[in-house]
Structures are given as C-alpha cells and as structure tokens.
Design brief:
Elements (H helix, E strand, L loop, with lengths): L16 H16 L4 H13 L3 H28 L4 H4 L1 H14 L3 H18 L1 H12 L3 H12 L2 H12 L5 H34 L1 H5 L4 H4 L2 H29 L5 H8 L2 H14 L5 H21 L4 H27 L4 H29 L2 H29 L2
Length: 402
C-alpha cells in the first residue's frame, strides 16, 4: 500500500524569536540536568560512595533506556491532548529525580532517581519539544527548531561550567539540590511563556490534526524503517563520541588540558553549523541529511588518521552532528507532513534512545579489549552505513513525490 507523504500543513503563526529563545534556554537547563550532568558529578560520586565506574555510568544508560521505552507513549499523548502539560512539567519531574539522587545513600535509590530523570527526558527534551512544535505549527516549525537548536547547542558548555563551578564550593549532593532549584524556577515559566499566548489560537486551528490518527501502514513502510535506522545509528555515533571523546584523545598520548580543549570544540561546531543553516541558501531536509551523514563520516576518518588533526576531526564531526540535531525535527516533518507528527516523532525516538543506552557499554568494552582506533573504525563503518541509508531515503522521497 502506497504511503501518502508530506500532506498539506495548516497555516498558523510562527513563534516569535523571544519565545524560541525561552524554549532554547529551557532545553539547556533540561539537557544539563540529565544527559550532561553526570560527566561532572561522576568522579565525586564515585569517591564518596565507593560505587564503581560501571555502576555510576550504568545508571545513565538505564535512564536513556527508560526514556526510549516511554517516548512512544509520550508522543502519542502529545498528539492527542490539546494541553501541553507534558512539556510544562518536565522540569518538575527532573527536579524530583535529581533530589532523590542527591539524597541517595543506597545504590537502589540512586537508580530510582535516574529512572525518574529518564521519564523527564522523554517529557522535555528535543523529541517532545519538536513533537509539540510540529503539531501546532506544521512546516512553520522548521525555523523555530533551527533557532532553538542553535542556542541549546551550548548546553554541554554551559552546564559543565556551571556544575563544575558549583563543585568548587559545595559537594556533589548540594550541587544536585542547587540544580533542582534552577529546574523548578526556570523550566515551567519558560514553557508557559512560550506557549500560553498562542495556545487558544493554535488549538482551534489544529483541532482536526490533533484528533487524526496515524495509519499503522506508515510505521511498516520502507521509508519509515530507513528513517528509524538512520536516526538510531546517528544517536549511537553521537553518544559514542560524546561519552568517549576525551578518552580517545588521551589514548593518543595527549595531555589532559589539550584533550579537554579539543573536545570543547564539539559544542561550538554544532552551534556554528546551525548559524550557517540560517544564513545560507535553503536546502531540503533530505539534502541536509546527506551532507550531515557525510560530515560525520569525514570527521571520524580525520580522528582516525592522526592526533595532529584531531581538532579538525572534532570540528567536522560537530558540524555534521549539529545538522543531525535539527534533522530530528525537520526531516520527519518534511517527509510525512503535520498529520500525526507527534506520534511519528515518538515512534522514531524510542529505538535511538535505547541504542544510546547501550552505546557507552559497547564503546567501553571495545576500547578496553582492543583500542580507541578499532573503536573509531567501527563508528566510521556505521557512519558509512548511515550515508547509504539517507541517500535511499532521499531517493524514495523523490520517487513518492512524483
């Protein structure tokens, strides 16, 4: 059965730049309190509790797994509900998780805190935000997605500096409580400010879209499966580099300060490409996806060639990954259109998040059993597969539009 792609979007107002900035700041706070915070807190946690490296980092994998398992349900809920309470309360749920982590004396309580954070990530990070924007604004959401990811690309830099600065004055538990306070005073009001004024207008305009369901044929279609594979591999590549980049650089007999400085180029590179996306001539989402996949592959090859050009590899990889973050929202919207967009994003989010959960374990095993060069080679092979996948997506989309 032929799947009808990219149905007509309803015309609704765009979000103004001030509201996109508010949503981007909320993303920085949410990413910082979940995905990135453990990079800074792990060492003091292990020193105080005696928990092993595998135990402490394993909870992040568990958290991502939980996020992947609930993302489909959350996408469906966003699609069916007029109120955006899921996004609104994501900061509250994340604050609860961080509070439990800060209070944890036993490891099982520490695990419980990270399970709650996993739920909050599915509620508040890119997938949930893009789902709501796409449902409300259709293709007009593209500009908002680019502007939001442009600013929120600073999340690792901002959150790492903030939390590491806190640790100069307080212990890791108090740092969790302070970050909890930041979540409570920022995320809810920022989301409320961004969506409240347009809530009544967009709900009336998009009422028909909200109540429409997505055919199960779409989820069995070739193009959906190709997209799912593309985003899954992309998530593995991103996580595989972000988690192990400093270890990879140090394995090349690089000084720690140099390794950290080179790794820090990742964030600005991701932001830089989003700036370019705003000022350069417009490209289709499918073309951008091909460029992104090639850039990620090239960056990995440069990392593999020589430590002397590792900085260049990090920059090129960052450029490609920066585009990929935008594509999480814009590519499904370009291919499938506005109808059931939140449900589609939820379905596309689950497997990539589960893949992210297992990637740190696989990466650590490969590096420990072999070396970082073998690990980068494996990532490069996956990146090459992703180029093939996205080229097939582009061809299939083109043929379906004729």
């Amino acid at each position: 059965m032929k799947i009808e792609l990219a149905s007509m979007s309803l015309k609704v107002p765009q979000l103004p730049i001030t509201k996109n900035i508010a949503l981007a700041v909320a993303q920085i706070v949410l990413w910082g309190g979940s995905f990135f915070i453990l990079s800074v807190l792990a060492d003091p946690i292990m020193k105080e509790t005696g928990w092993s490296h595998q135990m402490v980092y394993g909870v992040l994998s568990l958290s991502l797994l939980v996020s992947g398992l609930v993302s489909s349900k959350i996408g469906k809920t966003i699609n069916e509900r007029e109120k955006d309470y899921i996004l609104l309360y994501s900061g509250v749920v994340m604050a609860l998780g961080l509070t439990i982590i800060g209070l944890a004396q036993q490891f099982w309580i520490f695990i419980l805190g990270w399970i709650i954070i996993g739920i909050s990530m599915a509620m508040g990070l890119y997938d949930a935000l893009f789902a709501l924007l796409g449902k409300r604004y259709g293709r007009e959401a593209n500009k908002s997605i680019i502007q939001i990811t442009l600013i929120s690309g600073f999340a690792p830099t901002v959150s790492w500096f903030f939390v590491s600065h806190l640790l100069h004055y307080v212990d890791w538990r108090t740092a969790c409580f302070i970050y909890t306070f930041v979540l409570l005073i920022s995320v809810f009001p920022l989301h409320r400010f961004a969506f409240q004024a347009t809530e009544n207008v967009t709900n009336k305009t998009s009422e028909k879209v909200v109540t429409e369901s997505v055919s199960t044929d779409l989820f069995r279609s070739k193009i959906f499966r190709l997209l799912l594979a593309y985003f899954t591999i992309g998530s593995m590549l991103m996580t595989g580099i972000v988690v192990h980049l400093i270890d990879i650089l140090l394995s090349n007999e690089m000084h720690l300060a140099t390794a950290v400085s080179i790794a820090a180029l990742l964030g600005p590179s991701q932001v830089g490409v989003r700036v370019l996306d705003l000022v350069l001539p417009k490209k289709t989402a499918e073309t951008t996806a091909v460029i992104s996949a090639i850039a990620i592959f090239t960056g990995l090859v440069l990392l593999l060639i020589s430590p002397k050009i590792a900085f260049l590899g990090v920059i090129v990889f960052g450029l490609g990954n920066g585009m990929r973050s935008i594509l999480k929202g814009t590519l499904p919207l370009a291919i499938f259109g506005q109808k059931g967009y939140a449900v589609i994003l939820g379905k596309l989010a689950g497997l990539p998040l589960i893949a992210q959960a297992v990637t740190p374990f696989i990466g650590g095993f490969v590096i420990q059993q072999f070396n970082s060069s073998v690990y980068i080679c494996l990532l490069a092979v996956l990146a090459l597969v992703n180029i093939i996948l996205v080229v097939l997506v582009k061809k299939l989309t083109k043929s379906n539009n004729h």
